[in-house]
Amino acid sequence: MSVVVVTGGTRGVGTGIARAFLRDGAEVVICGRNPPERPLAEAGRRARYLPLDVRDPAAAEEFVHRVARDHGSLDVLVNNAGGTPYRPLAEGEPHRHARVVELNLLAPLHLSRAARPVMRQQPGGGVILMIGSVSGTRPSPGTAAYGAAKAGLASLAGSMAVEWAGDGIRVNTLVLGMVATERLRDHFGGGDGLGPALDRTVPLGRPAEPGEVGEACVFLASPGAAYITGASLAVHGGGERLALHDVTARESTPAPAPAPAPGPDPGPGPDRGQNL
């Protein structure tokens, strides 16, 4: 039975990932600074919660050793904890931007380094999954530090995959677009629905569900993905529609033909008025 750690597994995308692994039969440990509002359970199995500030390297190392000691192994680490408030670069104190980078880039680095000695001693090695974002693949105004951290995370995962392949550790990144979580609703103004205008920005016409991200994680951690490492799997519904697409669509749509000028009445005929 696999032992899986999901950081930030107490809410949002993290709960979707944790539930998917529970359905797959894994022992799941979730961590965060605060416990979930209610125990996280799925398919008759319950995730274990342990408190952790992922930005603390010493605490991350102690946490990994505790999981390995209590559960006998650490087979999969999902570095999911992350996020950012909307904050233009010219606003906010420097340390606030730095903390975004710490959470989204340095914390996965510290936890992965802590997990390596455990994983490399296991017969089956281990799997590390980074939860990335499309924000790391294009400009991210208003969340620039977050976008820069996610870009760095993909680079880190690629280097880690090469360095640790000999240890039997596979490292991959999931590049997420919008996911239907409470945080996404809050970011775009709240409400039960995210709105058709927002949905139209995704080629598949909707955000991902947290469970769909979880199923992608389960696949990348499975024996079926045994030859996949150093890869980035896009889980974004086709990406983001560019404003240019809408402009060119409007320009290429032919204008309606003008109505014909009225002429003399041709008079009654055999078919005139038949379909009125």
From TrEMBL:
Residues 255-269 have a biased composition (Pro residues). Residues 2-187 form the Ketoreductase domain. Residues 246-276 are annotated as: Disordered. It holds the Pfam family adh_short_C2. Gene3D superfamilies: NAD(P)-binding Rossmann-like Domain (3.40.50.720). SMART domains: PKS_KR. Belongs to the short-chain dehydrogenases/reductases (SDR) family. This is SDR family oxidoreductase. The lineage of its organism: Bacteria, Bacillati, Actinomycetota, Actinomycetes, Kitasatosporales.
